[in-house]
Write a structure and sequence with these properties.
This protein is an all-alpha fold. It has a domain of 194 residues. A two-stranded antiparallel ribbon has the order 1-2. Strand 1 and strand 2 form a beta hairpin. The longest helix has 27 residues. The protein is globular and about 55 Å long.
Length: 306
């Protein structure tokens, strides 16, 4: 059975079981709430998939999201919503290029490079804000995070747009094909004429850009820019990709499965609330998911090698 089919089966069984025990769980309003709450992690997970397809990942996405929210919250009261959004997105592009150049240009390990960026960015945010929240976001901006288009949350529409756009890029563009090629075998791709360093920089740029978009959604939901926000995003985004069965060594994976994986993790978190289980179990479950996915991936690679 393919990983995405197994994931769909698991999700269906979980939803049916929880719905049987909790009428509130199967209510349409609860499902809309799950989708809305998972939109930010889903956006980040879409970008994380691109980096995992290369055999890497980005631990700085939480810091990028927090920085985007702080920069936008500081800019919007002074120069307007459009300038705040643009500043946040440009920040994401700059950090993504920085990470990409560290990894592709200086050959620094992705773990070390992005962990260093995360620490540096968080420190600069704490210095710049004095560890205080940034207020003053125009009320009109909150529609991005809390508004609805009919019954559908606007945050979910943004998530769907990001997922669909990146899925189309992976399937129909030269860059998408090169991402899979480099993740499968970087050396062979280089010998075939693929500009592997450029591909790496562009992937980390897109990953940080999605984190900045998620940071804007976070700001729209809270109306506060906080340096310490979004600390759990890296783990949750990696878990949403890992749970789909995508090998962490790169070369395989799909956007649709990541959307389903994000929804599955959101359903688990929602179930904890529905059944009055301590929310402290959520990071424990997420960590267990990552460990299980990595263990399965390692066993599969060892079996293939032998």
């Amino acid at each position: 059975m393919k990983s995405r089919h197994a994931l769909l089966l698991i999700f269906g069984l979980l939803a049916a079981t929880l719905g049987a025990f909790s009428p509130a769980f199967r209510h349409s309003a609860n499902w809309i709430n799950i989708i809305e709450q998972q939109s930010m992690i889903g956006i980040v997970a879409c970008g994380m998939l691109l980096m995992i397809l290369l055999g890497g990942f980005d631990l700085s996405v939480g810091a990028v999201g927090a920085a985007a929210s702080v920069v936008a919250a500081w800019t919007m009261p002074r120069w307007g919503i459009a300038c705040g959004v643009l500043a946040a997105l440009l920040l994401g592009v700059a950090v993504g290029c920085f990470n990409g150049l560290l990894i592709a240009g200086l050959r620094i390990n992705a773990f070390v490079a992005t962990l260093g960026t995360q620490t540096l960015l968080t420190g600069l945010l704490l210095i710049g804000t004095g560890a205080m929240p940034v207020y003053g976001v125009p009320e009109a901006f909150s529609v991005i995070g809390l508004g609805r288009w009919g019954p559908v949350p606007i945050a979910a529409l943004i998530y769907a747009s990001v997922a669909a756009g990146l899925a189309a890029m992976l399937r129909f563009t030269v860059l998408g094909h090169h991402i899979y090629a480099v993740g499968g075998n970087a050396e062979a791709s280089h010998l075939a004429g693929v500009r592997t360093r450029l591909v790496t920089v562009l992937v980390y740029l897109l990953g940080a850009l999605t984190a900045a978009i998620a940071g804007l959604v976070l700001l729209a939901q809270t109306s506060i820019g906080q340096a310490g926000a979004a600390a759990s995003w890296p783990l949750n985004a990696i878990a949403a990709v890992a749970i789909t069965g995508a090998p962490l060594t790169g070369g395989a994976g799909g956007m649709g499965a990541v959307v389903l994986g994000t929804l599955l993790l959101g359903t688990i978190a929602n179930a904890l609330n529905q059944f009055d289980i301590s929310p402290y179990w959520q990071p424990a479950i997420t960590g267990a998911v990552v460990l299980f996915a990595v263990a399965v991936d390692t066993l599969q690679r060892n079996r293939t090698s032998s």
